[in-house]
């Protein structure tokens, strides 16, 4: 498998994740890149420090996302939903292999996203049906619909509130403690990713 991990500047989160994948999944070919990265910037000092604390030594120089890297990858994992959307806009043909790290690695997160998307779709179907049969004042349509479907709306709000984080926190420019927290997040999801890949063999 060829894995591309993407963040913003390719100096913190994605190189940390890349180093963890190299250690945890030596059979996977892995690269990292940044949507707004320049070639050749070093990893942030705090990233190097927390990785050394975790016993993971790595030398890193930043690289930008390119069409060649997107084509190279079998799987592209982003640090945030925004990164994913930006890549989808630029490389729509890569949609099938493009996910955030949390949604791809965690079955619980994937199941929660699926439930929420299904609830949204179901409510939208009901909204279209309701609008087509509604004969009253158009200004009252939304209020009447929300009143008629308050239980479904409350269910969606509960799902939204219980959603696992879709994004890996950006530690850039923040304290060493924030970097340690980000590393713990990355370790959790890379472990989940390793379990998933092993189980798919």
From TrEMBL:
A Pfam family matched in the record: LMWPc
UniProt keyword list: Hydrolase, Protein phosphatase
Protein's name in the database: Phosphotyrosine protein phosphatase I domain-containing protein
Top-level division of the source organism's lineage: Bacteria
CDD domains: LMWPAP
Hydrolase as UniProt keyword: yes
Record domain Phosphotyrosine protein phosphatase I: where: 1-196
SUPFAM superfamilies listed in its UniProt record: Phosphotyrosine protein phosphatases I (SSF52788)
Family stated for the protein in its record: Belongs to the low molecular weight phosphotyrosine protein phosphatase family.
NAD in keyword set: no
